[in-house]
Amino acid sequence: MSLINTQIKPFKATAYHNGKFVDVSDESVAGKWSVFVFYPADFTFVCPTELEDLADQYAEFQKLGVEIYSVSTDTHFSHKAWHDTSAAIGKVQYPMIADPTQVLSRNFEVLIEEEGMALRGTFVVNPEGEIKVMEVHDNGIGRVASELLRKVKAAQYIAAHPGEVCPAKWEEGAATLTPSLDLVGKI
Amino acid sequence: MSLINTQIKPFKATAYHNGKFVDVSDESVAGKWSVFVFYPADFTFVCPTELEDLADQYAEFQKLGVEIYSVSTDTHFSHKAWHDTSAAIGKVQYPMIADPTQVLSRNFEVLIEEEGMALRGTFVVNPEGEIKVMEVHDNGIGRVASELLRKVKAAQYIAAHPGEVCPAKWEEGAATLTPSLDLVGKI
Amino acid sequence: MSLINTQIKPFKATAYHNGKFVDVSDESVAGKWSVFVFYPADFTFVCPTELEDLADQYAEFQKLGVEIYSVSTDTHFSHKAWHDTSAAIGKVQYPMIADPTQVLSRNFEVLIEEEGMALRGTFVVNPEGEIKVMEVHDNGIGRVASELLRKVKAAQYIAAHPGEVCPAKWEEGAATLTPSLDLVGKI
Amino acid sequence: MSLINTQIKPFKATAYHNGKFVDVSDESVAGKWSVFVFYPADFTFVCPTELEDLADQYAEFQKLGVEIYSVSTDTHFSHKAWHDTSAAIGKVQYPMIADPTQVLSRNFEVLIEEEGMALRGTFVVNPEGEIKVMEVHDNGIGRVASELLRKVKAAQYIAAHPGEVCPAKWEEGAATLTPSLDLVGKI
Amino acid sequence: MSLINTQIKPFKATAYHNGKFVDVSDESVAGKWSVFVFYPADFTFVCPTELEDLADQYAEFQKLGVEIYSVSTDTHFSHKAWHDTSAAIGKVQYPMIADPTQVLSRNFEVLIEEEGMALRGTFVVNPEGEIKVMEVHDNGIGRVASELLRKVKAAQYIAAHPGEVCPAKWEEGAATLTPSLDLVGKI
Amino acid sequence: MSLINTQIKPFKATAYHNGKFVDVSDESVAGKWSVFVFYPADFTFVCPTELEDLADQYAEFQKLGVEIYSVSTDTHFSHKAWHDTSAAIGKVQYPMIADPTQVLSRNFEVLIEEEGMALRGTFVVNPEGEIKVMEVHDNGIGRVASELLRKVKAAQYIAAHPGEVCPAKWEEGAATLTPSLDLVGKI
Amino acid sequence: MSLINTQIKPFKATAYHNGKFVDVSDESVAGKWSVFVFYPADFTFVCPTELEDLADQYAEFQKLGVEIYSVSTDTHFSHKAWHDTSAAIGKVQYPMIADPTQVLSRNFEVLIEEEGMALRGTFVVNPEGEIKVMEVHDNGIGRVASELLRKVKAAQYIAAHPGEVCPAKWEEGAATLTPSLDLVGKI
Amino acid sequence: MSLINTQIKPFKATAYHNGKFVDVSDESVAGKWSVFVFYPADFTFVCPTELEDLADQYAEFQKLGVEIYSVSTDTHFSHKAWHDTSAAIGKVQYPMIADPTQVLSRNFEVLIEEEGMALRGTFVVNPEGEIKVMEVHDNGIGRVASELLRKVKAAQYIAAHPGEVCPAKWEEGAATLTPSLDLVGKI
Amino acid sequence: MSLINTQIKPFKATAYHNGKFVDVSDESVAGKWSVFVFYPADFTFVCPTELEDLADQYAEFQKLGVEIYSVSTDTHFSHKAWHDTSAAIGKVQYPMIADPTQVLSRNFEVLIEEEGMALRGTFVVNPEGEIKVMEVHDNGIGRVASELLRKVKAAQYIAAHPGEVCPAKWEEGAATLTPSLDLVGKI
Amino acid sequence: MSLINTQIKPFKATAYHNGKFVDVSDESVAGKWSVFVFYPADFTFVCPTELEDLADQYAEFQKLGVEIYSVSTDTHFSHKAWHDTSAAIGKVQYPMIADPTQVLSRNFEVLIEEEGMALRGTFVVNPEGEIKVMEVHDNGIGRVASELLRKVKAAQYIAAHPGEVCPAKWEEGAATLTPSLDLVGKI
Questions:
Q1: ipTM of the complex
Q2: At B97, which CATH number?
Q3: d(CA E59, CA E70)
Q4: Domain count of chain C?
Q5: Which UniProt keywords apply (chains A, B, C, D, E, F, G, H, I, J) (predicted)?
Q6: Which residues of chain H does I85 touch, with a Cβ-Cβ cutoff of 8 Å?
Q7: What's the pLDDT tens digit per position in C2-35?
Q8: A166: annotated active-site residue
């Protein structure tokens, strides 16, 4: 069964966030839009470029009321050390969740059991805790923050406008469709 | 467990393809790159815009040696009738798979059991039959063919260049990374 | 065990009916006689001739207080498109039930699992929701609406006249039999 | 699951046939078309009228190479006694199968468990032993031998003409349909 | 375990009795002595001679306050027809129970499963519903009504005279034994 | 299920027979007709009268080639002591089987579990080891040896004359019936 | 697990006692010391010498307030007959329990299942129903009543003198030991 | 089930024997008579008096070819230390088995689970490894070596003289009984 | 799972302590620090040197409010005898627990099942009954009491100073560390 | 059951070792003595002091032919980054095993499931792969490398000198004990 439109499962984790260790849980993310960005491991290759790309666009997400959570199976100690020593990661201002118990990676079905690390999975979660968009890549293939931004906007738009849907290639401001019996078989 | 890097499961289906009914199976898709594009139902709203978008870029995919398969739980009779009567769908030249037994939709975990229809799921499959990229949207949110094209190119590039990985925002022709111990903790 | 004299099982479905999408359920059919007519798929061959035959006799059924429901595993979108584009189906004024979840086809034991389509099954259901007559054909063999009408009349007659039964070849207005001990071994 | 297109299950029974007790089994009915006509009990009401109606048309069935088997849960002793004493049943020249073990009535799913008697079920079986047509009535509603004859002819016609199907209301000699892709969505 | 001294199990059946169809059940036989006489089938050979023998002695049983119930797996329709057409059976004035559901034959463990008919079993049941005497023969061996009468009398005598027992060859009016410690080892 | 026409189960036992302790088993009784006569206990009341009655008719049984076996759950020591001290039992010349393991009493389903003693059960077994007649009484009701003799003769007669059956009240030398189709419904 | 210090299990039995049949149960033996003496069978060899030996010392046991119960799987009828006819057994004044249901022999784990008889087992039971001494012999080896008497006395002595124990070879009146920490390692 | 006449179960243990640690097992005790004497614990009260009593009579047992094995759940280290420091135990010349794994105490069903110590159990085992006599006491009651000697002699006598049995109170040299049918009911 | 930080399981045992037998249980050890020192057996080799080493340092442990419990599967009788006869063990003033039921050895997972003896295991338990330190050796390797003392002090220090931890080689009085986010990645 | 004397379970892991990533497995550690040192997480507090202490004594271990493996659930990327950035860890020359799959931490039963990190556990493994010494601390209590060195020496000494054991407080060069029966109860 797909994770789309299911409720995120309960979790409790520690994150490194702007120089502090903070608690994050399914309850604390409720009530606003959030994006969970899984990656394999701290101190590796594609990962910092992806996290830096998100850091660069973080202000845009903030404006939309969206929080970003990066997640790996490393500890919060490791996240802090990485943040201290990497120029790219040093830019990150969103919470970096530590998942050494691998509960979160299993919940989102991205854990590679034989490696103990996560796949590159991205999940857009609405304020009700329902997953609306998911995207998972083989670990060699990087993601693009701007495309993620487009999807978040589309998800927010249709949430705000019941009865409308976003057609292919929809960009913010473009026309949407309003399904009705008359349209059936006419597009 | 994630579908990423798993083998696609066996299936047999009938497709409408350029005026003919043809057989498609896990065996017939083996040996080349393929993209499976699930959508909810013929004669509906977002679907034709997505299928048209793909039809418009079909030549690009063909150049990369990639076949596109659209899939819904409608019958091949319905696909043929839709192709005959819709201007948008009339442009489609790739195979339109009929999945009334819902086997394929269950295999790719996109079936909405209580509706008997599929979610908007896209899957990039390599010639060995392994799923390398997956993307699933709530049905109100449309997809973008050009972004799919980028991912296919990245997947093909790393398959062709063992030892390299594509960083975030990678576009065809851009530099890739070659993981090595020296890079650990240095990006 | 036979379905005859069992209660129809719960279902919820959407139908296309005279230009509208309407809800149909086991509860909405209760309280009057109904006929469920299953067929394999929209846009096929025998099916429109059967549905047209029923459309032609619909007024007769209406006079008897009987509602007709045609059912296939296609969606209501497909039903609407077929109704719009086929002269034969365009005549249909009874509700065309969409069964993409295949619940109804399984309830009436007419689903061909390996095809995802229904057999040609006809079921007469009384106002109490009990199946009184059933008839199922291999898909190559068409049905006759007038014979169905005769059976409906016989079923209604014996429901209205407890203690009487309809002999072979009974037609409306003909004599019936009243079973009694004296008749035993005497016919 | 429907009995249509399933193989009849093994059985062994004794029948009364033209003044003799004979063995009948799934093996002895193989190789020619047959019709199984179940009814509740010897010495009852609707039953003799139905069996007589069939007896009257028996020559027609014989011409088509079809054998008729009537079946009830009575013993062969009872069948013989009924044949001896009833004018209507005295006309019967086809085998009257005794099913006191109720194996055959269970095989064809027409046994009313709480009565130990069968429903009025009719089954057309092809020479390969597959059920092609079935019809079951509540016990108060009689059957019509001529309609059965029409169905047998349609079943034989499509068996003899692969690729053709019989539309609604088809009678012997009328045109049939040959399904092809061009017809899809055109009737 | 033996059926002797067990309670008869619940049953509901229809019997042919003196020109009427009547209901018989475990409840309706309670409160008086009864004899259940099973036989294989109506219209057969040994059976009518046994039932006639019982019919001839029925007055004797009646005097003792004992009801006789004959039982076969035939229907009540068949019993009536047999009674109408057989001189021997025409004499029967006790209820002829129909057991087409085979519940009663299974309760008394006399059903021959592979034939759907009962063995020649006789059971004497006291007013409390307990089986006191049982006798079962292979179907080729007939029973004797006068011996049954002797057993019924012995059963009634010891029921009426607690503390006495009937020795071998006891006939009505003969001396009985009163067990006591003094008799132990003295006979 | 009835014991009639089943094979007797394996057993091994010790019997007291004409001043000796002998072994008896299912194998040693095979090949000739035998009668097993169960009774509750040595040194009791009805039992010696029954065993004496059989002793008096033993010569008749011997002439028919029939062996009698009396059986109780007492030991062979007890049988010997009873034979030594009781005038009635002193006459017994047939084997008295000891069944302290209660295997035989359970095999023939006559053990009263809560007393550890057998019911008064009589079983006629043919040379093939099949039970042809059974009779079980509540312990207060004695049996009659002459009636047993009649049944043994009937069982032997139909075994010797395949195709004939013994009607009710049949005595040695009387006419038997030969079942045939012509007789059906004619007696 | 050993039976020593376990509670005797519930039982109900009939015994022959001084010319009467009496009921004995776990409840009726409670409240005083008792000895259960199992033996294989009435009318055998070692058994009467053992029971006679106990009969000779019965007065001694009575003085100690101890009841003796002999037990075999024979019936109470057999016990009575044995008592009547054997000089040795005629001396017995204690209850002779009949155990044809073999419940008691199983409770005390002395039943030889393949013979239906008990081993030579002796059990001393205190007023609380707990087994304090047990002794079981292969059936060829007889027991000695005087040794049993010594054990009963020792059991009663330590029951009456908490804190003392009887050393090896202890006889009535001899010194006992009072365990204390000072004695540890000093004897 | 009783342990009498069962085979002793496999075991391996270490014993202290005349100044050495030796291995003892089911295999090493086979081929001669042996006696297993269980007691609760080294350094306790009744135990040394019992072991000393046996030590005093050890020459008698040796003459009969019988080995004695004392057993407790203490270790062989403890046995050695006890032997070194106790005058009574210092006399012991037979093997003292250590059973800290409690396997042997469980095999002979004398382990008190809630104390981890054995009951006072004595077992006579024949050269075939079968237990012929068992005796178990509550721990406060001591045993008598001379009575054990008598039982061993009786067990050996009947083993050497098949067909004879030892009556009650039998002492070496006394007459035995030879069971025969003539003796039944005569003692 | 590790025993560290689990609650000790319930137990009840007898110990030899300063010339007395005393009860020890999970409840009696609660409320103060304790050390459980398992060893294989009384009267052996390494064991007395270890117990003596602890006896020599017992005053130090007492000062820290720590009780020492030595444990083996020997009985308390054996402990007392050992204490009486060994110069080394004679020094012991702490309780010597007897564990013949092996419950405690199983609770702490140090029982060698095939020997019935414990490994050399040491466990430091805090006043809440939680195991804070464990150490288990193959039986040939002795332990050092002074190292145990160091660990107890460290465990007590961190219990008394929440938020501090003892670094490697910490000795009483040395500096400890106070974990804080600033220290992460800085040591 | 204790891990002592069990075989280490199979594992495969990546370690950071002197500037390289190397494979380590149960097979690669076989054939020489090894020490596994588990700790909670890279970049934390007690851990670097312990690892530094071991690094300082590494030459001593090397001389004894012993390899040290530190293990945490961090990745090898994290180990490398820590080694690069910490002065204390920079000294480490032994392999640092990465255990993100937590297989090794579970094998040695030190995983804290609810934290995804290991306890401070130390295990000495002999060349045959058997665990000879284990020590586990609550995470606040540091370990001492010199004490570990003493235990390794004792383990090696007794492995090299079968028949000797190391008493308490044994240091390299000190006398050992040779267990013999004469010593039992004498120390």
A1: 0.84
A2: 3.40.30.10
A3: 16
A4: 1
A5: Antioxidant, Cytoplasm, Disulfide bond, Oxidoreductase, Peroxidase, Redox-active center
A6: 81, 85
A7: 899 999 999 999 999 999 999 999 999 999 999 9
A8: no
